[in-house]
């Protein structure tokens, strides 16, 4: 072993539903340079130790997006995750399939739900029939229009974000970070004539289930920053359609709530989101909390300088405020 | 050490126990909390969703208040920390800055961008230092296994928050070890508590909270601790709903960060507002003999 190699321990998730009753972890040990990508090590294991190890990969260069998996619980591309830092931090490299998608075998998952969500956002340009693209010519965009896409064209659909997303994990209705980042890309495309319709359709269909936890942004190997583009979609959806369901009503309600006194009026917010009748549904839990925390019924004090806040709103938020 | 104390909305009302515990810990460590009755709500991420520039402006106003006093800001909420930090960052974008300044200037408010925003966890681990924290421990929390629960906005996006690793942080575990507790590592510690969608789809929010509590429990935690009062609402005040959503009994005591530190410093449960929790903390207190202070 040369000086710059490490004895790396790999605990690899193994599961073949045709033969195994339950998943297991198989341990392999390799002497490798700390700069070795996890994918390279897995391919060595397959070539030299265990030809039955099943995984997806193709380009080995972080372009194709095939080798996303969990490495020490983080959703990552195996081809660009190096062994050294993982060994240094965890003392081993635990390799598991992506989350939120059923395992077909070992590290290979069934991506049907991921691609279904992608299809649902209709990921293609919808042109205005009155203004078809000129035959045989590209439609030019200005550099400023291209900048409007932000980082979204970089997406390689590796599904690392989908694997990392707690909203996907908890609710099948949530389209997932990748589909929404792609949606953003079409919404801001100046050639697309359906952007208003796209925003109107996505609002009640899971947009507001995003937790803005930013785990997708951490997982993304291409810095697409899905969580930040989902925020943009929310603001654009409100601008197009107003606050039409619980998520947007809550966001707009919160915004209008705090300008009054400068601090959050908790009880008023519940009424703003659910309406007076809907509030009744919250009564049982509210009582339980109130017994320990009677302040939930208090109006907050008015901050000093609350009139400054009102003027900031007047300057930057000219839209009509929703009533309480 | 003097800091502009930004308690946030929840700690001034339903989460008052967090404010109590913060004051206890800061008093013990000699951190002077300077209060500003003109600080407003940070927008809690919701204002950011509705109007990004407005959100930057209201927080630039908050930061300007601290800047005029020549103080950095102390937060005790992951979301306040995230929103105030985000305002600092977005103000470096000339297009955003122009619009915000256009709204603030007529009010005689100027923010030059000099204020650092630090959460209590960062102040304790970096500025005060773990040795100084250890020196104040009178009741080491020996034998208490605690699962830290970070809260998203304290960490992420990690390149924007520019502090800890966004998925594998260690500051909170370091602090827990310093006060004698045994930190429990579990995946859920960096996950979401579900709070942001508590009003959008409560059953999904509760399922998310329930999963993190179950995760901590299955890794042997006697209690959880959080630096965020919104996470605390999800994990404690709504724990009964979380238990229903994951169809499992939970009964997990959940501390605010300064309550854990305060207990180790010798505070009584009452001084830290522990009786205000929905889930009783007694089982965890029994493990450390909370009434006897050496």
Polypeptide structure, described:
The complex is a heterodimer of chains A (324) and B (294). Chain A has helices spanning 38-49, 83-90, 112-120, 143-147, 160-164, 166-170, 177-187, 195-202, 215-219, 226-241, 246-261, 266-279, 283-292, 306-316, and strands at 6-14, 24-32, 68-71, 74-77, 93-96, 103-105, 108-109. With 324 residues, chain A is α+β, with helices and mostly antiparallel strands. Chain A has 3 domains: 6-109, Beta-grasp domain (Ubiquitin-like (UB roll)); 112-241, Alpha-helical ferredoxin (Fumarate Reductase Iron-sulfur Protein, Chain B, domain 2), CATH 1.10.1060; 246-316, no CATH class. In chain A, a hairpin with a 2-residue loop joins strand 6 (103-105) and strand 7 (108-109). Chain A is globular. Chain B is of the alpha/beta class and 294 residues long. In chain B, the strands form 2 sheets. A 4-stranded parallel β-sheet of chain B has the order 2-1-3-4, with helices on both faces. The mean pLDDT of chain B is 96. The interface between A and B is large, with 65 and 64 residues.
Helix and strand arrangement:
The complex is a heterodimer of chains A (324) and B (294).
Chain A: E1 6-14, E2 24-32, H1 38-49, E3 68-71, E4 74-77, H2 83-90, E5 93-96, E6 103-105, E7 108-109, H3 112-120, H4 143-147, H5 160-164, H6 166-170, H7 177-187, H8 195-202, H9 215-219, H10 226-241, H11 246-261, H12 266-279, H13 283-292, H14 306-316
Helix pairs in contact in A: 3-7, 7-10, 8-10, 11-12
Chain B: E1 2-6, H1 16-29, E2 32-35, H2 46-50, H3 52-69, E3 73-75, H4 78-90, H5 94-104, E4 117-119, H6 120-135, E5 145-148, H7 152-155, H8 158-161, H9 171-178, E6 182-183, H10 202-218, E7 223-226, H11 229-237, H12 239-246, E8 254-256, H13 257-264, H14 282-288
Parallel strand pairs in B: 1-2, 1-3, 3-4, 5-6, 5-7, 7-8
Shape of chain B: globular
Gap from first CA to last CA of chain A: 71 Å
- Number of helical segments with 4 or more residues of chain B: 14
Percent in strands of chain A: 5-15%
Uncertain segments of chain A are none
CA-based shape of chain A:
globular
CATH fold-level assignment of the largest domain in chain A: Fumarate Reductase Iron-sulfur Protein, Chain B, domain 2
